[in-house]
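User: Working on a comparison across species. This one is Enoyl-CoA hydratase-related protein from Nocardia jiangsuensis. Can you predict its structure so I can line it up against the others?
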Amino acid sequence: MSSEYVETVDGVLQITIATPGNGTSLDFTGVNAGSAALRDLDPGIGAILLRGTGGNFCAGGDVRGFAAAEDRGAHIRGLATHLHEFVRLLDAAPVPVVAAVHGWAAGAGMSLVLAADIALGGPKTKLRPAYPGIGLSPDGGMSWTLPRVVGVGRAQEILLTDAVLSADEAVRIGILSRLVPDEEVYNEAIRLARTLAAGPRSAYATIKSLLLNSRTASLSDQLDSETEAIAASANSPAGREGVDAFVEKRRPNFS
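Assistant: Here's the predicted structure for Enoyl-CoA hydratase-related protein from Nocardia jiangsuensis:
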């Protein structure tokens, strides 16, 4: 699969969510192409990479487009519906989601950073909710993901003050996973995604499923789920290969 917005290389589904031609605002051609690919995920895909191809990861929604709409509410409702389908599909994906966050991640761009499993940034990366600055409330799941990452009190402050977060602060509070040199953000992110794609895919799928279920499970129920999952993993090809490789003091081959 290859297009301007969606490309599969070495087991990684790469989705472009913002482009220079769109002023690095959220590009719904890319979002919808990404949703189509995720809806019918190729079994050969072992990781997903979100990227922007301009000067920013994603500068947020197309505010000029909002202003030009005859019915702004209906226009934004339609955009949010498409974005939320994409976020739901990312959340349900059985493979790791990596974000290459260079430059700004504002508004929906910040929401998509929060939707990733692992987000890499550079020293110049900045994040901002951006919604209050134009008199709007969040979308893209930010009101749900942000308090779960940083805590309710910190999320309230970030959202209500429309805080600009530096790269260091974003790492400290857990929004970005780590920093690499600015010019290496994409290269390191695709390297990581390829490494994950070559890893124990069944284990990753189980980890993501356990984390998904933990949102509503009690500790006791989660322990039961972990018991069943690790027992099943032990008899899976990946589990058998991983344990055998450890005992034989060699690198596992999960392919």
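For your comparison, note: The longest helix spans residues 72-92.

User: Helpful, thanks.
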